[in-house]
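Long-time lurker. I teach an intro course on protein structure, and each term I like to show students one example going from raw sequence to a predicted 3D structure in token notation. This year I'd like something fresh instead of my usual example. Would anyone be willing to generate the tokens for the chain below so I can use it in lecture? Attribution to the forum is fine with me.
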Amino acid sequence: MSRLVDNIFTLQNNVFALTPLLISFYKNLQSREKDMLLAYFVFPLVLNQDCIENIKQLNRHSQLSRITRDKDIMAGFEERFESYKDITNRCLQYALDCGYIEIDKNLTVRVISNEQLFTDPILTNSFKLSSILYRVFTRNVINTYYSFGIKKL
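-- Reply from a regular --
Happy to contribute to a lecture. Here you go:
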């Protein structure tokens, strides 16, 4: 039974389906040093069905504390963060290999392709959320990790 669950997770969370979410996030994010590390927050936030409604209400004036104070969003966040770490790495590598993004020596991500990527219709809400999620990441990367309670990557 455990292998069945692992296989379903792999099918639903594959690199080809999830990479457009990261690219959508970085298209709108204003580049700054070490912003590659913000990629690890995208999947735990936009793929959690329980907090999609709360995140949909983000606007230009929303702050990161609005997310970190929300108990529905933060419940189990560290576990989601850990479980999506590997797929995030693979998505970043896939995006680099395909020439969708470029990462410089300061870990700054720049989207270099304006190509419209196919997005699974099941992920439509997640895709929309990833494109507006940049609005709350106004702090530097270290403070963002601290705000979410993440002690190591």
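Some talking points for your students: The first strand starts at residue 101 and ends at 103. DSSP finds nine helices and two strands in the chain.
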